[in-house]
Design goal:
This protein is mostly helical. 75% of the residues lie in helices and 0% in strands.
């Protein structure tokens, strides 16, 4: 019985959602490579990259699929390294299911923001990864009295600021997607809560949920109307 409990504890501490997402991204990248190359526009569109005209024609699933696509080896390598190190910490803090929910909602949120504000074809896990940064900022706001969390939040805030500054001066970067993912991750983190660390104010959770849903609906409708 003791050995069984130990195995359950080890399983709970293993970031298998993070690892699973990395495996899925790698498999999709391999499939894209075999299909003609991940930098091919035709391959990207076939696999579900965000393309506004097609979303407006009813292919709404393109707000979900881009977070599993990457344009070139460097793109997926950098994103998966970031996902591994950041994902491990967020998954440990929030738990496996909450982590996955936050990752997916943030990815969708980033893509909806990109759909609203950018006409460019886009793909990448960055929208979801920025959502994990947003979750760190939520922890910093909610548990500022915890010195460890406060230090982590400051570090990630600086990292986010540097990344956004880099985005502003780098052609081809989907800034709207990154900011949308960041905001969605920040808000959804309140919605799901973080019982492993402490209680989050019910008022904050309700307000964050309303703002998140209302914001995504507005961005989607605005994108459809363009």
């Amino acid at each position: 019985m003791t050995n069984f409990k130990y195995r359950l504890r080890r399983l709970d501490q293993t970031p298998y959602m993070t690892i699973g997402l990395i495996v899925i991204n790698a498999l999709v990248f391999l499939a894209m490579t075999l299909a003609g190359g991940s930098t091919s526009v035709n391959v990207l569109i076939t696999f579900g990259a965000k393309l506004n005209a097609l979303i407006q024609q009813g292919e709404w699933w393109r707000l979900f699929t881009p977070m599993f696509l990457h344009i070139g080896f460097t793109h997926i390598l950098m994103n998966m390294i970031t996902l591994y190190f950041v994902g491990m910490q967020i998954e440990a803090a929030f738990g496996h299911t909450r982590f996955l929910v936050m990752y997916l909602i943030a990815g969708i949120g980033g893509n909806v923001a990109s759909f609203c504000f950018s006409n460019s074809l886009s793909a990448g896990a960055s929208t979801a990864i920025f959502g994990l940064f947003g979750a760190f900022l939520m922890l910093g706001e909610s548990f500022w009295q915890n010195p460890g969390i406060r230090q982590l939040a400051r570090t990630f805030l600086a990292f986010v600021v540097m990344n956004i500054a880099f985005d502003l001066f780098t052609p081809g970067i989907d800034l709207a997607g990154h900011l949308g993912g960041l905001a969605s991750g920040f808000l959804i983190a309140y919605t799901v809560g973080v019982p492993r660390i402490g209680k989050v104010s019910p008022i904050k959770r309700i307000v964050a949920t309303i703002v998140l849903i209302g914001g995504l609906v507005w961005l989607y409708l605005h994108g459809m109307a363009q």
